[in-house]
UniProtKB/TrEMBL annotation:
Signal peptide: 1-26
Name listed for the protein in its UniProt record: Maltase-glucoamylase, intestinal
GO MF: alpha-1,4-glucosidase activity; carbohydrate binding
Cellular localization per UniProt: Membrane
UniProt keyword annotations, A-Z: Glycoprotein, Glycosidase, Hydrolase, Membrane, Signal
Keyword Flavoprotein: no
Residue stretches making up the P-type domain: 29-79
CDD domains: GH31_MGAM_SI_GAA, GH31_N
Amino acid sequence: MAHRLRMTALAYLLVAVALIVPAALGQGHGCDDDYQEDGDRTGCPGSSHDTVEESCHLLNCTWCPTVPDTPIPWCYVSKVGVGYVMVGEPINSPGGVRVELQRSAGRTRWDNEAENLVLEAEFQSNGRLRVKITPATGPPRFEVPIEILPPAEGNQDPLYELQFENSPLFSFKVIRKATGTVLFDTTVGQKNFVYADQYLSLTWSLPSENVYGIGENEQTSFKHDFSANKRYPLWARDHTPEGTVNIYGVQPYYTVLETDGNAHSVALVNANAQEFTMRPGGSINYITIGGVLDFYFFLGPSPENTVQQYTEAVGRAPMPPYWGLGFQLCRYGYDSIANMRAAVDRTEQYDIPHDVQYGDIDIMLRRLDFTYDPVRFNGLPEYIRELKAKGIKFVTILDPAISIGEPPGSYETFDLGQTMDVWVKRADGTPTQGKVWPDPPVYFPDYSSESTKEWWIYLIKEFHNLLEYDGLWIDMNEPANFIDGDVNGCPGNSLNSPPYVPPIFGGTLWSFTLCADSVQAAGVHYDVHSLYGWFQSEPTLIGTQEGTGKRALVLSRSTFLGSGRWAAHWLGDNFSRWSNLHFSIIGMLQYNHFGVPLSGSDICGFNDNTTPEMCQRWGQLGAFYPFSRNHNAIFNQDQDPGYFGPAVANSTRTALRIRYNLLPYLYTLFHLHHTRGDTVVRALWHLFPTDQVASGIDKQFLWGTGLLISAVLDEGQTSVQAYFPDSRWFNYYDGMEVQTPGQTVQLQAPLDYIPLHVHGGNILPTQDPERTTLLARNNPFGLIIALDENQSAQGTLFYDDGGDTIDSHTVGNYYLAEYEFSNGTLTGTVAQNGYAEMATKRLDTLRLMGHTPFRLMYVNGNPWFDYTVNGATGEVTVLHLQLPMNLAFTVRCEP
């Protein structure tokens, strides 16, 4: 009892101190006029516990210190507010509405806030809404020069409605008409809506905390955490993926899974330095330091619909070449053709599938673009042709930075660039000068310039005469610069040193990149910095396709909204850490939302040395990345799958042979993305949007609707916890049905095994695997048929020449088959027969999972006896069918 009394007295003492401290702090540091009690304060958007008084005032917020080391904000939103009010009534038009706004009389910390704004809403289609807010007067502000493609449908019956309020300041809401759900509500931020020249801030509340997307940052969960005021800065940066640090791409796009299972997504078309803060209670504060507020809303209502609508607007990925879905091998640090050959030979020794070999910057002569080192890589052109004879393609790297130190007339890349005036310029008109991989200083091409695009395409085409590449890998295109800004430094002005900078790594806009006042054709670097890789991607694809005459693979490190139209993306310079296996799934899921389906992480990790167990598990997981490449850094040990010996090599081969067996299914998924915007890899909640458990699953993922991957992601584990939503699921290996759907199940997963399950209701086309896709394409096809609760299933097969035709779908040079199983009968029909080679190919095997027992089987009306039934699992395997792929067929199971 005495002990308890002593504690109570101490508690009273602490309360007394707490009551004294705020007053003392307020007197010593000076509280602003708008004093609020601790419990009434709303933290200022853009602030943190490290914010000081001067920074708080720059954020248009009130400063008043209180008890240290508590969550009570010292920098908070003013009661008075500094937002805008609506002038008059909204002005309606057949395709939208216009609202005029005037800045309120509330105080402001900014001298250059827009006095009047215009909100223009465009009802672009039933599922697409645009809301754009710009100053009513003054010089035009920078707007991203992105082509937003027209929607296929009209706006006669929109899924949304808009509401506007003055209460007392202006706010607006986007509402789903069918349910009344408020999807986007700025009421919560009406008192802190700021529209200044170099500081724009808006806060909105969400209908659910099931929010996914926004990047590029390394995120430790696919679903965002709203409990800790996490801030995600976006500004393209060459930095390893670590925490919330801004890295290579800028993707201001997110998806919300609503509580009733509907979904919507939002894209903010802004490329300036910006940040998102995920606030407790389910709201987002958005700050950008330039451009305009330009929102696109995509109303779904299903999760897949949101991605389909988004990619319809910004553009969808082209079909990859078929070989681009094969296994790819790379490293920075081969250092000689002998070492590259040794890695290839080890892969072949263990019969591991291998479709693409890479060259990194160490193949170059003195790190110069469009060259190779004739000493260390002597015979490289001949070796590339040797690889091609085996069916292995070659992809090499290009960096933007161009050496300016070569003797005149010796380096066409630079000399022609000078003639065509292709460089990013300083404010005085001279080229920006930095330092990257070459020893001399470098200039940076301005890919927003038409002359630069012409120069780049020409060089790429000419390069193919030197090295017969099949694809190109564009790196360092944030753009990266090994010095800050310029060799002469950056001038002191409001572009290089704006009044507010989001919490980007390095603290300045010119850290490890160019000065923000550098000049490009599309605008100052302050505005277009994060578009650098985006501008580079399209001419790279054009040049590569014209150089090879075929469909090409372009891989870009830096991306922006719509980059998927031209380039794939790998997740950057990751680490050989077990946590990175999990993070790679999150990044892959995000990039499928961003419209870049051909994505994946460096298998076994790029930085640091991997371990045999890690590489074995990562090889299994990576076999199911859409973009499947093993790559690591210079000075690290080799980590190609043959390097670690039989155990790693054999399990990698097993996983990759499954991948190659399923390539017709994966290729078809890319066709469905290309033609209608489907994700290739997706989270479980895409299929089960009302399943609350599924909304948080990010250690498993699906290929399309048909294949669930549940890899081991942790060291020393030989089992994995896998969640199976309430549906039918079948073990890929033997057809055994999962007996406890709707639950988490512990699956056995020895070191040489990755758990895979086929989802009932799906038909997956397959083809017998080989070491390369070139060889595999000659093999017979098969079908995996997994039946749902109604004993039915559907599937599709898209197939073409694999890339000899750049866009086979447009010209009709492709094959499309539809498969349906219902009422005991499998029916195969040919919807498009434009690929003549299919007449020589055969459907040979079927695997039927989940069928009730039957007595007889008929193929095209004839009795068929060449099949087996697994007594333990019930799987039926039908053999030696030899059905021509260009003809319709039926297979009937007679009860």
